[in-house]
Design a protein that fits this description.
CATH topology of the largest domain: Glutaredoxin
CATH architecture of the largest domain: 3-Layer(aba) Sandwich
Helix content: 25-40%
Number of domains: 2
Number of strands: 11
Number of helices: 7
Strand order of the largest sheet: 5-4-3-6-7
CATH superfamily of the largest domain: Glutaredoxin
Shape: elongated
Largest sheet: 5 strands, mixed
Amino acid sequence: MATLRLGDEAPNFTAQTTEGEINFHEWLGNSWGVLFSHPADYTPVCTTELGTVSKYTEEFNKRNTKVMALSVDGLASHKDWIKDINETQATTVNFPIIADEDRKVSGLYDMIHPNADSKHTVRSVFVIGDDKKIKLTITYPASTGRNFDELLRVIDSLQLTQYHSVATPANWNNGDDCVIAPSISSEDAKTKFPKGFKELKPYLRMTPQPNLN
């Protein structure tokens, strides 16, 4: 199928997971979502990744974001592997992992890249908004573990910029100054951004993050 692009609706599916059968869109409800694939169970990098996500539960909750993982291994394998993750990463896996043995979901989301691996999924990440639209896609090779601090940073930016007329500059972190959208005139910006702004160039205006007191 065609590669999913930003702004596309996230394909819906029903799948067996470690937390029972789930309809993806119903499970998301009004939340944001992260769907990410890992190449295989009982692999070292994946073990550290799923352990890290478990430890970040509170951070995802703060952002009204649900997390779901996937691999093409079976349900029994997933459940046994979770025991290893909990033990080695000193955590408790508390999010669903899809058992995608028939490659149905990985096919919908183009998670298998034949030139990298013809059988297993690559490290795909999809951030999905509360409107069920795809907001971000990132693909890592199997050998590189993901940076979940960066993923949280991006979710912060996506949620901020969806609800306010700003963009986030390079290396932005939550609390840093933002860029005023070019569509906002400087005259309107005086009202829209009561904290004020600094005009470096007519097209480059910095303002304190608008959703912070």
